[in-house]
C-alpha cells in the first residue's frame, strides 16, 4: 500500500499529508473543497524544531479524481460530513481500499457500515494521532504533539490482514499500534461525548437556561462540582452500556480513574488544574447584554448529534436505563434543531 487519499483540509489533514509524504511513507493525495490553495508542498513544523517538507501528488475537489487510485483513504472530517462524504466516494472506491477515520468517536464506523459494501475494509483511530494546527492553508502546519502509541480498529478483513494493516500504520506513523477487538472499542469513548456535553448542560441548561454571563467562562479552568457530578453519573451509565456490548473489559478506564480522582470535588479540581486545558474558553458569543451560549459551535453541533448520539442509541437499543444521558442528550438536540 503506497497511495493514501487524505479527505479534508483541516489541521490533521495538513500534518498527516506532510508527515507521510516527507518521510516517503506514501504518495499522498488530498480531497479538499479548496484544492487550488494547495501548492503541492506542505511544510510541517515539529515540536523538535524540525521542518518536514512534504509533497502532495494531487489535490482535487472531486472524488473521481483521487479516490480510484488510493490504497488507503483517511477521513479528517467533522461528524456532520462523514455520511455525505461516504456517499460521495462510494462510487469510486476499489473493493480492496481501506477506508478509515482519524477519529472514530464521531460516528465513522456506524455510518460506514450502513453506507459502504459489507466487504469494504474499514479502519479508524480511537484518538487522533497528532495535536496539530494549520499555519498557512495548503502550505504549512504545526505538529504540536505526538501520542506514545495508537489504538486502531480494523473491520471486514481477516485477522491476518488486520495485523498486517496495523503494522503498516505503525510504520507510517512511527509509533506502536495496538489492534482493538472491534469498532465499538474505537468508536465509544467517555472523553468528548460525555466530557463536553456534561459541562455544556450544567453551564447553560437547568437553572442557567437563558442566563447571560458578564464575561467569557473558561471551559476547564472553571469546571464546577455540578458538572463533575453529571459527568460521573453519565459515565456510570456509559459503563452499564459497555457491559452489554462485545468489548474487552477495561479497554477504557472510568472517568474517575482516568483523572485520578475519587469524587466530584476532586474531579472538578483535577480538570480545572490540567496545564494542557489552560486558556480553553467556552462556546460563547457576545451580545448587547453580555455573553451567551454559541449553539452553532462544534461543541454543540459535533458532540451531541455525532458523539453522544451513538451512545444514546446503543443504550436504548440494548435496553440500558440512562436517565442522565437522556436528559443531557435531549437538551443538547433541542438547542441545535
List the helices and strands and how they pair.
Layout: E1 3-7, H1 11-22, E2 27-31, E3 41-45, E4 51-55, E5 58-60, E6 72-75, H2 79-89, E7 98-101, H3 108-115, E8 122-125, E9 130-136, E10 140-146, E11 150-155, H4 159-173, E12 177-179, H5 183-187, H6 192-204, H7 225-243, H8 255-258, H9 264-273, E13 284-286, E14 291-293, H10 298-301, H11 304-317, H12 323-336
Parallel strand pairs: 1-2, 1-6, 2-5, 3-10, 6-7, 7-8, 11-12
Antiparallel strand pairs: 3-4, 8-11, 9-10, 13-14
Helix pairs in contact: 2-3, 6-7, 6-11, 6-12, 7-9, 11-12
What does this structure look like?
It is a single chain. A hairpin with a 5-residue loop joins strand 3 and strand 4. The model has no long low-confidence stretch (mean pLDDT 95). The strands form three sheets. An eight-stranded mixed beta sheet has the order 5-2-1-6-7-8-11-12, sandwiched between helices. The chain starts with a strand and ends with a helix. The protein has helices at residues 11-22, 79-89, 108-115, 159-173, 183-187, 192-204, 225-243, 255-258, 264-273, 298-301, 304-317, 323-336; strands at residues 3-7, 27-31, 41-45, 51-55, 58-60, 72-75, 98-101, 122-125, 130-136, 140-146, 150-155, 177-179, 284-286, 291-293. By secondary structure, it is of the alpha/beta class. The chain has twelve helices and 14 strands. Helix 6 (192-204) packs antiparallel against helix 7 and helix 7 (225-243) packs across helix 9.
Amino acid at each position: 500500500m503506497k497511495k493514501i487519499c487524505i479527505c479534508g483540509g483541516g489541521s490533521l489533514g495538513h500534518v498527516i499529508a506532510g508527515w507521510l509524504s516527507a518521510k516517503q511513507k506514501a504518495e499522498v493525495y488530498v480531497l479538499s473543497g479548496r484544492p487550488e490553495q494547495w501548492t503541492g508542498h506542505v511544510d510541517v513544523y515539529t515540536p523538535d524544531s524540525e521542518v518536514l517538507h512534504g509533497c502532495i501528488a494531487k489535490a482535487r475537489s472531486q472524488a473521481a479524481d483521487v479516490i480510484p487510485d488510493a490504497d488507503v483513504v483517511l477521513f479528517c472530517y467533522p461528524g456532520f460530513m462523514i455520511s455525505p462524504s461516504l456517499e460521495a466516494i462510494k462510487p469510486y472506491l476499489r473493493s480492496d481500499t481501506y477506508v478509515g477515520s482519524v477519529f472514530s468517536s464521531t460516528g465513522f464506523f456506524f455510518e460506514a457500515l450502513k453506507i459502504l459494501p459489507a466487504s469494504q475494509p474499514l479502519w479508524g483511530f480511537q484518538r487522533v494521532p497528532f495535536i496539530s494546527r494549520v499555519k498557512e492553508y495548503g502550505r504549512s502546519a504545526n505538529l504540536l504533539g505526538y501520542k506514545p502509541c495508537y489504538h486502531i480498529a480494523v473491520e471486514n478483513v481477516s485477522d491476518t490482514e488486520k495485523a498486517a494493516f496495523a503494522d503498516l500504520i505503525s510504520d507510517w506513523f512511527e509509533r506502536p499500534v495496538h489492534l482493538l477487538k472491534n469498532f465499538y472499542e474505537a468508536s465509544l469513548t467517555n472523553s468528548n461525548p460525555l466530557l463536553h456535553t456534561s459541562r455544556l448542560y450544567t453551564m447553560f441548561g437547568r437553572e442557567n437556561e437563558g442566563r447571560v454571563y458578564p464575561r467569557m467562562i473558561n471551559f476547564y479552568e472553571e469546571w464546577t462540582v455540578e458538572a463533575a457530578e453529571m459527568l460521573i453519573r453519565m459515565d456510570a451509565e456509559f459503563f452499564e452500556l459497555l457491559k452489554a456490548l462485545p468489548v474487552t473489559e477495561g479497554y477504557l478506564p472510568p472517568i474517575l480513574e482516568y483523572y485520578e480522582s475519587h469524587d466530584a470535588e476532586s474531579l472538578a479540581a483535577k480538570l480545572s488544574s490540567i496545564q494542557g486545558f489552560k486558556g480553553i474558553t467556552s462556546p460563547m458569543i457576545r451580545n448587547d447584554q453580555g455573553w451567551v451560549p454559541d449553539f452553532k459551535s462544534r461543541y454543540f453541533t459535533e458532540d451531541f448529534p455525532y458523539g453522544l448520539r451513538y451512545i444514546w442509541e446503543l443504550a436504548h437499543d440494548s435496553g440500558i436505563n440512562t436517565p442522565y444521558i437522556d436528559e443531557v442528550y435531549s437538551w443538547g438536540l433541542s438547542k441545535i434543531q
